[in-house]
Predict the structure.
Amino acid sequence: MAGLFSKQAIIAKPGFNRWKAPPASVAIHLCIGSVYAWSIFNPALIKTQGVVASAPEDWSLREVVWVFTVAIVFLGLSAAVAGKWLERVGPRAVGVVAAVCWGGGFLVGAIGIWAHQLWLLYLGYGVIGGCGLGLGYVSPVSTLIKWFPDRRGMASGMAIMGFGGGAMIGAPLKEWLIGLFYKAPQYLGATDSVELVTEGGRRFARVAGELREVVVIGANDVSQMIVPGPEGVYVAGTGAVGVAETFVVLGVLYCLVMLLAAFSYRLPAEGWKPAGWTPPPPSETTRKMISRHNVTVERAMGTRQFYLLWIVLCFNVTAGIGVLGVAKTMMTEIFGSSLPNIVDAGFAATYVLMISVFNMVGRFFWASISDWLGRKNTYTIFFVLGAALYLSIPWAAQQVSASPSVVWLVVFYAVTMIIFTMYGGGFATIPAYLADLFGALYVGAIHGRLLTAWSTAGVLGPLAITSLRENAVEKALRDLAAKADPTRFAEQFGAPIGQLEQLIAEKTVTIPKLLEIAPPGTADPSTTLYNSTMYLMAALLVVALAANLMVRPVDEEVSKG
């Protein structure tokens, strides 16, 4: 059994066609890359009790997004540890462990959802699944770079392309499974036909002689339902959002596909090189900062270049990963009320899918282009253009608020898609950047250590976007409540405006419900909830640009050491 998983067992025989190597790498990355479709789960996870809307006991968006954050943190940590292990045991053993962790993480997470225990969701999807992500991420990259020393950018692009495209398959699959297992809660009738009671900020109605907690759906809430239904009153704790069952199906499916791919891995024999290929001449390697020596991971971590690239990767990922974690919610909040006939739950899910498509295309396109432009020049384009695009998003949001038009939706869509080609391109180009500076022999281990930048970004990005969003939501709620007529407020929520803070805490008062009683002409503040986040992301890209411009070739003494 040990021989079956050994590195020697997967050395390719002479004459092996190297183009047979990419499919296994892409297959594993397609499975673990579904993490980028995490935002598909958000609307369901924040309604596991209320089903049609969030009930007081439901998890908040911030708590749910932190599951994604924990997974990314453990991706980077496990990749840092697995890099050297990978070089020792080979990609098959690492791939098998990745399959078990990623699939098993879904199953443990499903138990947490059923039991409504958030810590189990963190442990399963976040910790165990995150370790599967890290192990699955590093195993294909160094393998393909070894098979394609003549096209390092293209090789890393192929390896990581699947990770960016995982959501392309995962998003519609998750949507379909959630819809398949969804069960609507008990419907009591229209709001004016049900006697509602407000106690402690919560809404209740009498059902079969018993006072039961309920959620109330107004006209502005319908577009945010998982499966659209009638306005009115629903009994909390009945029905099912279908997300736990979806976790089970995905866990089993991903585990099986990843195991099959792991057993398909092959490595080139020592000393192998492509037929007819010779290393580039010194003039070209100098121009593109390509080292002709191999630097060990310990020596690489002692260089300034390693830490400059750490900053480059960290801030580039921070700028994109926060948006990825809330993509579906963000699209619905910015455009859902302004263009309700276009931007519904299905449109927002398609937006997540298209992010995956452009993320995947960008990984292959930019990584391949970097073989010609050079890695440093490619990253300079990312940061200059990216900062400008992030700054344009608040402007587009302001325009749609002032004058709802599909034009601004198109602008927003186009801008974010370009951003995500560069986000994905940054991931795909960094292994080739490392191989250029430190050599290809130890790139798997060095890449694994550098992915701790991803862990850091996995905390910074979601923390920034959820914290800034929450501050914007709280301010918007207070501003809208101040404009509302106190009598209409009391009629709408069954409690005086003096209990606003308690009503907000129990999720009874929301922006859509306040807009129903706001004076005519009141602007929907949802379009501006992410403005401060976009300004921050642009600033981070400017810092990353400065770090990239400071990168220089590795000293020859270090390379030879």
Summary: The domain at 17-183+240-270+295-484+519-552 is CATH 1.20.1250.20 (Growth Hormone; Chain: A;).
